[in-house]
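Thread: quick sanity check before group meeting

JM: Hey all, I'm pulling together slides for Thursday and realized we never actually wrote out the predicted structure for the chain we discussed last week. Dropping the sequence here so it's in one place. If anyone has concerns about the input, flag it before I start.
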Amino acid sequence: MSRAAREFKTWYFEEPEHFDGPPFLRIETDKSGVSVVTPLLPRHLSAQATNAALRGMLDGLLAKVQPKRLIAWYYTPMALQFTSELEPDRCVYDNMDELSAFAAAPDGIVEWERRLLSRCDVVYVGGRSLYEAKLDRHDNIHVFPSSVDVAHFRKARFSLSGPADQAGSPHPRIGFFGVIDERMNTRIVAEIAALRPNWHLMMIGPTAKIDPAKLPRAANIHWLGCKDYAALPQYLAGWDVGFMPFAINEATRFISPTKTPEFLAAGVPVVSTPINDVVHPYGAMGLVEIASTGEAFVDRIEYLLKRPRMRWLRSVDEFLSAMSWDDTWAGMRQHLDAFVPPRNVNAEARRV
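JM (edit): ok, ran it. Output follows.
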């Protein structure tokens, strides 16, 4: 969206926050030019009342902006509940995950996705596995795997002052960053810590949909909480190896973890469980090590701690040279501008 904002006035309509007071829109323009729109709603509204309020807020925003060309860009089909009456010039579904497989997925999400797919002009999916699963559901679908801000994460390859909450942990440091939820295999985390008590596991990220009290606890597991994106290179600069202990379940069946190329750009070698979109291409190219158990993770991490990095880094940089969010946006923009026959002749006539 930050790339889109270079060409379009971009409004990012967030999920609502609830508070004690009348409904209103909080609008903050990010330094990238994206206007982040957060609806604030009274507590205890019913689902129907919530969607009615969101519909009214969005209508009010559009009446104020009066766009000459309207592109509706969906990251979740649930937003269709309050936008079904929109008649955009282009409708995009940017499908980064199989949301219906996540814990506590909203009721009816499969049906709402079916409706969205029937309305949208173009579909982007975040990985090869998801592309293969959705290929027969739309006739204009394109795969755009996670990209990476190489310049940002490459800072971790150089000497950076270490964050205070990590400075006291000795090496080797094995690190993870990302959302800590039902997609993490916490048993593997506990096993690595137990098998190598002299290793320190640095765990960065918010917890979601799991009880934090049930996370494995040990003297060498450090749950550091959520960190700002800008600070991540400082943490990664102090890690010897990264790890991605994803569970193998329905929630991870189609994921394409953004952190994979981010670890590589930072120059941090990484071990992952056999997630399809990590095994191919990263594992097959020798850029990421693959392991399925705590013992196997320990074996692969020990290998990476001893392996010289220069040849691996050359392969990493060659691979990453073809990846950037600028290129991703350029590809999406090309499909967005391609001619698509009108979905609804009457709606097109009304616009004219």
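AS: nice. The mean pLDDT is 93. Residues 47-65 form the longest helix (19 residues).
JM: adding both to the slides.
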